[in-house]
Design brief:
Helix 2 packs across helix 4 and helix 7 packs across helix 9. The protein folds into two domains: about 80 residues, RNA polymerase sigma factor, region 2, helix turn helix motif (Rna Polymerase Sigma Factor, Chain: A); about 80 residues, Arc Repressor Mutant, subunit A (Orthogonal Bundle), CATH 1.10.10. By secondary structure, the chain is mainly α. Keywords: DNA-binding, Sigma factor, Transcription, Transcription regulation. It comes from Streptomyces sedi. This is RNA polymerase sigma factor.
Length: about 180
């Protein structure tokens, strides 16, 4: 693989094709894992290969071509996350789950914790659960949630506080071995 990268550095088009074909599947697996976005990983692979193509003339072979390429892939993924975080969310308020997944990529609680949280939130009155999800999970400002809900900001704050207290009570009961009410 490194031999192909060095030959590609010298302008051998066939070596470029062989090198990229040899690493493409590894890149896709790696970027899918790192990004947590199987659909967006393909775009990251393309961007990584473009960056690698531009950087090939400077590849000196001091490390393996695979290591060199994976470092480019990592930087590409980090750049994508930075770019996405700098952009305002595009999802509508009604699509809160997509917003949460996009905003929390890389530091999402485990699957089990998410299932437990969803179960606990399902027990809350819908207005409290919605206010909690939008402000505490999706990270929306209270004022935006109030506007979307058609109620005063104080009402949203109250709903979130009551939801938080109920969730804490339910978790405490569950930890003590008692069934939540």
């Amino acid at each position: 693989m490194t031999r192909w990268a060095l030959a590609a550095r010298g302008g051998d088009r066939r070596a470029v094709e062989l090198f990229f074909a040899a690493v493409r599947d590894d890149l896709l697996r790696y970027l899918t894992r790192v990004s947590g976005d199987p659909q967006g990983a393909e775009d990251l692979v393309q961007e990584t290969l473009l960056r690698a193509l531009r950087a090939l003339p400077s590849f000196e072979g001091r490390s393996s071509a695979r290591t060199w390429l994976l470092s480019i892939a990592r930087r590409t993924a980090v750049d994508r996350v930075r770019y996405e975080r700098s952009r305002p969310p595009l999802a509508a308020t009604a699509d809160w789950l997509t917003t949460v997944e996009r905003e929390q990529r890389g530091h999402v609680p485990g699957f089990e914790e998410r299932v437990v949280l969803d179960e606990l939130l399902a027990r809350l009155p819908s207005d409290r659960a919605r206010a909690f999800r939008l402000t505490q999970i999706a990270g929306m400002p209270y004022a935006e949630v109030a506007e979307a809900s058609g109620c005063p900001v104080g009402t949203v704050r109250s709903r979130v506080a009551r939801a938080r207290q109920t969730l804490l009570t339910q978790l405490t009961l569950a930890e003590d071995g008692r069934a939540p009410e």
